[in-house]
Design a protein that fits this description.
By secondary structure, this protein is an alpha+beta fold. The chain has 8 helices and 19 strands. It has 3 domains: about 110 residues, no CATH class; about 120 residues, Jelly Rolls; about 80 residues, 3-Layer(bab) Sandwich (Phage tail protein beta-alpha-beta fold), CATH 3.55.50. The strands form 3 sheets. Strands 1, 2, 3, 4, 5, 6, 7, 8, 9, 10, 11, 12, 13 and 14 form a 14-stranded mixed beta sheet that branches. Strands 16-19-18 form a 3-stranded mixed beta sheet. A two-stranded antiparallel ribbon has the order 15-17. A hairpin with a 4-residue loop joins strand 6 and strand 7.
Length: about 325
């Protein structure tokens, strides 16, 4: 938590960011709630003086007040006591206002962020969450065996301790939520995506959007289309889309475009294949592969050339000699 406070303070001061700070700030502010908090914080920052920190400092405000009021007023050598009291009260109110706005960052919740690699989180009820890269999990300090609600932006694999009396609820943006009593499942809901995905590994999960809801069971997956405001059809779980966690990818006579989708999500990079390749099927497996390993294996199996850049792996057909 102290880390995000430092980053917000740098942003407000206009100080230069490191690349890591910039990515953490972008990830944090991708939440609509955090955007509102930052807007309010900017307003307070603009009126709170020159020596600004994201913590209330009543002593500093008091010293500043004394400095600004040492000279006698033009029309009176002695200021009435009530004016001093009013000024002191205003100073304290300002300090409290700043403290109240900052409070959500420091004490009302714990924000976990996975930026460059997945992280594991242990929750107070014994449940655990593995966050994928570019994801955040917000956990209230009130989270316990009587209240089990968290907020997800991005992708997370949840292993929830069973408690038949207290449901475990994952809230997301766009009024989406997943509700369970005890199970394991994978949720994917990025702010810039038009779909949300649920994959159930064990047990049952209630996936809902307002009054629209559906129950998924073990080895089922589904998508919710945010633009059409509707669920897709349930289908069998594609375990390759959990490769970010398992590090294992297997294909058995799989259409090449489906294989490419799984591999793209694993390396977080585009994979471009030659046109008219949709009829190709691929069989093979990978165990925590590197980009180069993926490129070499696919190229060898399908007789393609490849090129790796910062943006993509690009495959092309080999030119035949005339």
């Amino acid at each position: 938590m102290e880390e995000i406070i430092d980053i917000l303070q740098k942003k407000l001061k206009g100080e230069l960011f490191s690349r890591g700070d910039e990515r953490r700030f972008e990830l944090w502010i991708s939440s609509s709630d955090n955007q509102k908090e930052f807007t309010e914080l900017e307003k307070v920052w603009q009126i709170s003086g020159t020596n600004k920190v994201l913590k209330p400092n009543v002593d500093a405000q008091w010293e500043r007040f004394k400095r600004e009021n040492t000279e006698p007023a033009k029309h009176s050598k002695i200021k009435p006591l009530y004016k001093y009291i009013s000024a002191i009260a205003a100073t304290i109110v300002m300090a409290i206002a700043i403290f109240t706005l900052v409070q959500p960052f420091e004490s009302s919740s714990e924000i976990y962020s996975a930026v460059e690699s997945p992280i594991n989180i242990q929750l107070p009820d014994g449940s655990s969450v593995t966050l994928n890269i570019n994801s955040t999990l917000t956990v209230s300090h009130k989270f316990n065996n009587r209240t089990r609600t968290v907020k997800l932006i991005g992708e997370g694999l949840f292993n929830v301790e069973k408690n038949k009396n207290v449901p475990f609820i994952v809230n997301m943006e766009n009024d989406l939520s997943a509700k369970v009593l005890g199970t394991s499942f994978n949720l994917r809901h990025y702010s810039n995506s038009s779909t949300s995905e649920l994959k159930v590994l064990t047990g049952k999960v209630l996936f809902q959007k307002a009054d629209n809801n559906i129950v998924l069971e073990k080895n089922e997956e589904i998508k919710f289309d945010l633009e059409r405001n509707k669920f897709s059809e349930k289908k069998a779980l594609n375990s390759n889309l959990l490769a970010w966690h398992t590090k294992k990818i297997e294909f058995d006579n799989t259409p090449i475009y489906e294989a490419v989708e799984s591999l793209e999500r694993f390396i977080n990079k585009s994979i471009l294949i030659p046109e008219n390749s949709n009829d190709i099927r691929y069989t093979g497996s990978f165990n925590n592969p590197s980009e180069k390993e993926i490129a070499e294996v696919i190229a060898l199996a399908l007789g393609w050339n490849y090129k790796i850049s910062d943006e993509a792996i690009t495959f092309s057909e080999k030119k035949t000699k005339k």
